[in-house]
Amino acid sequence: MERFDLLGPLPAHGATIVLEASAGTGKTFALAGLVTRYLAETDVTLDEMLLITFNRAASRELRERVRDQIVAAVAALDGRMPTDTDLVRHLLGSEAERAVRLARLRDALANFDAATIATTHEFCGSVLRSLVWRVTAIPASPCGRASTIWWPRSSTTATSRASPTPTPIRR
C-alpha cells in the first residue's frame, strides 16, 4: 500500500481518493488537510466534493475538523495566527498565491453548508430525496410494498418506448 503524503502532489481533479487505515492513524486529519489544499490550491469548490464516512459520529467529526482546518488556514494566511503547521507553511506560497488561496478559503467558509460530508446512508437518502419529484410508483403488486418498482416519469429507455406502461418485475 502506498503511503499518503498530505503535502505531495494533489491527485488529479475528479479522482476518487480512498484513505484506509486503522483507528487513530490520522485519517480525519489527512482528509481535512486534503480538502483544505484542494480548496486553496485549485478551483474546486466544496459543493463539488463528496466526503463519506461510515457512522454519524465520524461524519460530525469530519465536518467539524474540515471547517476548523479551513478556519485555521484562513487565520494563518490572513496573518492573525502563527504559520506553525506544515500544511499552512505549504499554503503560504508567493504573495499572489496567498491572496488567491485566502479568497478561495474564505469563499469555502461562506458556503460551507454546501459541503456533502455524510454517512453512506445519509448520502444515499439525499440522492433519493432529490430524485423523488422525477419518479412515479407502479401500482402495488400482489407481492406487497417491498416489490414496488420506481420508474422515471420521463424515461426514454427502449423499454418505455416499446411499452408505455412497463410490466412490474416480480420476484
Automatic annotation (TrEMBL):
Keywords: ATP-binding, Helicase, Hydrolase, Nucleotide-binding. GO terms for cellular component: cytosol; exodeoxyribonuclease V complex. Gene3D superfamilies: P-loop containing nucleotide triphosphate hydrolases (3.40.50.300). It holds the Pfam family UvrD-helicase. It comes from the Bacteria. One of its GO terms (biological process) is recombinational repair. One of its GO terms (molecular function) is 3'-5' DNA helicase activity. Residues 14-135 form the UvrD-like helicase ATP-binding domain. The keyword Nucleotide-binding applies. InterPro entries: DNA_helicase_UvrD/REP (IPR000212), P-loop_NTPase (IPR027417), UvrD-like_ATP-bd (IPR014016). PANTHER family: RECBCD ENZYME SUBUNIT RECB, UVRD / RECB / PCRA DNA HELICASE FAMILY MEMBER. This is UvrD-like helicase ATP-binding domain-containing protein.
